[in-house]
Amino acid sequence: MQFATESLYDVMGECAPLLCEHWEHIALDKDTVKLNPDWDAYRFMQDHDNLHITTARQGKELVGYVVYIISRSLHFADETFADGHLFWLSPQHRRGIAGLKMFKHAEAALRDKGVTKVITKVTLHFDVGKIFERLGYQPIERVYAKGLV
Question: Is residue 142, in this structure, part of any structural domain at all?
Fold first, then answer.
C-alpha cells in the first residue's frame, strides 16, 4: 500500500464510492442527514492551503484517506492546528499497521506544512481511539451533538 499527499483535485473524481462506503459504515443519522459534500467549500479550503489530504492506494485504487482542515488557532495565535475532519480505510485493507502508516504519513506532511498540533475525533459507536493512543495522542474532550430539525 502506498501513502501520499494529494490535492482535492487529484481525488475528487474517484472518491465518491469511498465516501459512500465510509458514510454507510459510520453515519448515525442516515435517515435524516444525507451525504452531500459541499465541494465548493472543499475547493475553497484547498485553494487557500487549509485542506490536507493523505491518501492510501493499493496500486492505483484509492482505498483510504485522511482529511484535515488546517487553521491558525484563534486562542493561540502562534499555533497552527490540523483538525481531523475525515479518515477512512476500506475494511478489506485494514491489515497489519496500514492505518498507523497512513496517519504517520499525514503527520509528517502536516509537520512539513508548519502544523504544530493535530486534533482528531473518533466516534463513540466506532471507537478506534486505541490507534491514536498508540501514535501518542491523548484524549482531551468529549463532543456532544443534538439535532434541531
Answer: no
- Of the chain, the end-to-end C-alpha distance in Å amounts to 42
Q: Please, are residues 105 and 54 in contact by the beta-carbon 8 Å criterion? A: yes
Express each pLDDT in 73-112 by its tens digit. 999 999 999 999 999 999 999 988 999 999 999 999 999 9
* Predicted model pTM: 0.92
Q: Taking the CA atoms of 114, 118, 119 and 124 in sequence, report the sign of the dihedral they define.
A: positive
Closest CA to 5 of 105, 83, 118, 132: 105
Name 88's Cβ contacts closer than 8 Å, sequence gap at least 6. 18, 21, 22, 26, 64, 65
Q: What is the CATH number of the domain that holds 27?
A: 3.40.630.30
Q: Could you give the CA distance from residue 102 to residue 115 in angstroms, rounded to a whole number?
A: 17
Q: What residue numbers bound the domain in which 122 lies?
A: 2-134
Nearest of 77, 53, 76 to residue 65 by alpha carbon? 53
Strands 2-5 and 51-58: antiparallel
Q: Tell me, yes or no, whether 147 lies in a domain.
A: no
Asked if residue 141 belongs to a domain, the reply is no
